Amino acid sequence: MHKTLTSIAAALLLAALGTGAQAQNLITNGDFELSTVATDSFDTYSNLGGYTATLWGSDSTSGTHKIVDVAGNQFMQFGGGDSASTAFGVGTGGAYTLSFDYEGSGFWALYNSDTSSYVSTGPLVQINGMGTDNTALTLSNSTNYKLFFGSVGAGLPGMVTGLQLDNVSVTAVTPVPEPEGYAMLVAGLGVLGFISRRRQQR
Predict the structure, then answer these.
(1) Is pLDDT at 15 greater than 80 in this prediction?
(2) pLDDT above 90 covers what percent of the chain?
(3) Which positions fall inside the Ice-binding protein C-terminal domain (predicted)?
(4) How far is residue 14's CA from residue 16's CA, in Å, rounded to a whole number?
(5) pLDDT digits (tens, 9 = 90+) for 121-147
């Protein structure tokens, strides 16, 4: 009995330690997965509706905003001069990371909707080529933001027209531990406390 309880306590504590805190992505549908788009096809849109919290809205000048599927992976494709945005709120202020994959030429901008000011410098931050962007941000407590992406228009030297975007996320640098981890830790400590009391009673 004693060995069994000790084993249970050890298992719960190990499980609690193994339950790593997952950084919550504040961006809704940053991977642009749309169930109506078939594999190796695309869908043109003006506003991505049907999501639980915020929407990716678009400002289309060419009519070529698309969700493109390549072998089951979907991403947003902008035509020349088009832009899109999504709103999100921050409950706890502090250090955050904006991350996204891109290919082409364009820009991003982060706007504080509560103070009517840009968090990003410029206010537009230029992106060109192909890669993953990871930008450190300091976001304010209980504040609403709007994140913009856009492609460059035709005719700018040294830049292609159009932008492809995927895996957009805004996450806290120090994520909050998951409730399941706390629950297993408390249960494990409770079992150890019970074992300790049983020993003292003997």
Answers:
(1) no
(2) 38
(3) 175-199
(4) 5
(5) 878 899 999 999 999 999 999 999 999
Architecture of domain 21-190: Sandwich (2.60)
* pLDDT band, residue 53 (cuts 50/70/90): very low
Closest Cα partner for 193 from 6, 1, 3, 4?
6
CA angle 43-44-47, nearest 5°? 110
List the structure tokens of 176.
């909050």
Are 125 and 108 within 8 A, CB to CB? Answer: yes
Cross-strand pairs, 43: 67
Which distant-in-sequence residues (6+ apart) come within 8 Å of 129 by Cβ? 103, 105
* CA angle, residues 105, 70, 107, in degrees to nearest 5: 15
Domain limits, the chain = 21-190
pLDDT bracket for residue 14 (50, 70, 90): low
